[in-house]
Amino acid sequence: MSALAASSATPSAAQALSLFRSLLRAAREFPDYNIREYTKLRTTDAFRHNATLSDPNSISTAFAHGKSQLAVVKRQAVVYSLYAPPLRNVMELQQTPF
Amino acid sequence: MSIVFVFAFRPNFSILVTPNAHLQKDFGLDILDLEEIVTTLEEEFGFEIPNNEANKTNSIKLVVDHIVSHPQANIALD
């Protein structure tokens, strides 16, 4: 356990920021408005919540979770695009407000 | 042509947006806010902003210049 922990370095702030951006970019691929907006908000909330972490173990755990979630987002964006509904959400319509 | 930025990141936001305004010093944006802005700009104008360029762009003027000068930017001339 200690050998495994010693071999993996703690993710740096730059890596966390890169993961943050990757998640936001991946979230954009969702065709569904609700899933897309939820994924963005969830990503922002999680990173703000974990911004104060200083324990290397906590940082590594949170980063690993973020990495796995990024893989989930990428996979689900593809799946959702296969079954995208023909009608667009009213929030996405480019209509002039009445 | 003008680009209007709507800053919804902070409540009760009333700082005047000027070309020389600094994103971090004048608007109090932290590093996560800046990342959100970069990805929002990418989505709005349809091109990717590399990390090193995003890090150097820290004022309204630099942001606007970067977008306008990019050949792939999707800017509608109204």
From TrEMBL, chain A:
<dbReference type="InterPro" id="IPR045297">
    <property type="entry name" value="Complex1_LYR_LYRM4"/>
</dbReference>
<dbReference type="Pfam" id="PF05347">
    <property type="entry name" value="Complex1_LYR"/>
</dbReference>
<dbReference type="InterPro" id="IPR008011">
    <property type="entry name" value="Complex1_LYR_dom"/>
</dbReference>
<protein>
    <recommendedName>
        <fullName>Complex 1 LYR protein domain-containing protein</fullName>
    </recommendedName>
</protein>
<dbReference type="GO" id="GO:0016226">
    <property type="term" value="P:iron-sulfur cluster assembly"/>
</dbReference>
<feature type="domain" description="Complex 1 LYR protein">
    <location>
        <begin position="15"/>
        <end position="71"/>
    </location>
</feature>
TrEMBL record, chain B:
<dbReference type="GO" id="GO:0000035">
    <property type="term" value="F:acyl binding"/>
</dbReference>
<comment type="similarity">
    <text>Belongs to the acyl carrier protein (ACP) family.</text>
</comment>
<comment type="function">
    <text>Carrier of the growing fatty acid chain in fatty acid biosynthesis.</text>
</comment>
<keyword id="KW-0276">Fatty acid metabolism</keyword>
<dbReference type="InterPro" id="IPR009081">
    <property type="entry name" value="PP-bd_ACP"/>
</dbReference>
<keyword id="KW-0275">Fatty acid biosynthesis</keyword>
<dbReference type="GO" id="GO:0005739">
    <property type="term" value="C:mitochondrion"/>
</dbReference>
<keyword id="KW-0596">Phosphopantetheine</keyword>
<dbReference type="InterPro" id="IPR036736">
    <property type="entry name" value="ACP-like_sf"/>
</dbReference>
<feature type="domain" description="Carrier">
    <location>
        <begin position="1"/>
        <end position="71"/>
    </location>
</feature>
<dbReference type="GO" id="GO:0000036">
    <property type="term" value="F:acyl carrier activity"/>
</dbReference>
<protein>
    <recommendedName>
        <fullName>Acyl carrier protein</fullName>
    </recommendedName>
</protein>
<keyword id="KW-0597">Phosphoprotein</keyword>
<dbReference type="InterPro" id="IPR003231">
    <property type="entry name" value="ACP"/>
</dbReference>
<keyword id="KW-0443">Lipid metabolism</keyword>
<dbReference type="Pfam" id="PF00550">
    <property type="entry name" value="PP-binding"/>
</dbReference>
<keyword id="KW-0444">Lipid biosynthesis</keyword>
